[in-house]
Design a protein that fits this description.
29% helix
């Protein structure tokens, strides 16, 4: 399993993070007191679900076709500059080898492990899983660039089945 970005204490596939040094998005720290809820209206909820599902479908389509160019184009310029198509293919290779097809997420509601928020830098963060069998985990962050949300951090994987 190849990691592009190291996160202390975690071993995961599919993590990319090109943001300035931050505490890992996996656990909010006590210093992150300026978080504000990302969902305040029904429009906010629909936008968030659209971003989440379209990103995961882009990952799924990239894994099914082996073509990561669209996924890369959805990302912020710094992410695009840092990670090549080969990097993306390498990181998602375990999902490809398992033949994971997560398209069913379009029909499901995500279960957020913490409420989606905007952090101090205005980064939209969402973390959780879709109740697929086994679960499809995600941890995503987006920055608004030129009026559009662009990926700055990406983690998607199929969680091991519980025994």
């Amino acid at each position: 399993m190849k990691l592009i970005s190291s996160v202390t204490g975690l071993t995961i596939a599919g993590l990319f993070n090109v943001m300035p040094p931050l505490a890992p998005a996996y656990a909010q720290t006590e210093t992150q007191t300026n978080l504000r809820p990302a969902v305040q209206t029904e429009s906010d909820r629909l936008l968030l679900l659209s971003l989440l599902k379209s990103t995961l479908i882009a990952v799924n389509n990239a894994n099914l076709t082996g073509n990561y160019s669209v996924l890369k184009e959805l990302a912020a310029p710094a992410f695009q500059a840092q990670f090549s198509l080969t990097n993306l293919a390498d990181v998602f290779a375990p999902m490809r080898r398992r033949g994971s097809n997560i398209a069913v997420i379009t029909q499901l509601e995500p279960v957020f492990s913490e409420q989606p928020t905007f952090d101090e830098q205005g980064i939209l963060r969402m973390r959780g899983a879709f109740p697929t069998n086994p679960n499809t985990a995600f941890n995503l962050a987006y920055a608004q660039i030129d009026g559009r949300y662009r990926l700055v951090s990406l983690y998607v994987d199929i969680l091991p089945e519980e025994q």
